[in-house]
Predict the structure.
Amino acid sequence: MQVTLLCQGCEESTQNASAATVGIIKSLIGHFDLDPNRVFDIVLECFELQPDNCVFLDLIPIFPKSHASQILGFKFQYYQRMEVNHHVSLGLYQLTALLVKEDFIDLDSIYAHLLPKDDEAFELYKSFSSKRLDEANKIGKINLAATGKDLMEDEKQGDVTIDLFTAIDLESEAVTERASELENNQTLGLLTGFLSVNDW
């Protein structure tokens, strides 16, 4: 019943409907002795699925602010497990960004739960940039003193010329190689969420 109530469309969400929904949720929590944290989790899940439903912005303040960061943090940590094979949904990023935008949660409190950590991200960036720079420096490089035999030796591989078509192939491989890494980068995902809720 609670989920059905929460998942009504935004077109029905007038100010009176919002007040009624808040009252009903409070009554359900009290009458059935429901765990407020679990109810809050359900509210956030429904909000994640319907980010345009304005009832949630009236409903969320009845729960403690500190609990929102913890619940969202657990959601992000769930996707960090090795056995989880799917990525964080755009809805979760949008929800988190919207709650930060509305000053319901603090960015620092949620940022602590995201991966990769800053140090790891900088190391990944340095190694990737170094590799890409080495590949770029090889484009069009010609060793006039090299013979066919020299080109076959492993230690002379740095002297091999990479033509433009090979460079384009290397670029495509790099994009493919980094795609899964970027999909798993929760910090970039949250940035996407901020852009989608017009909070830059």
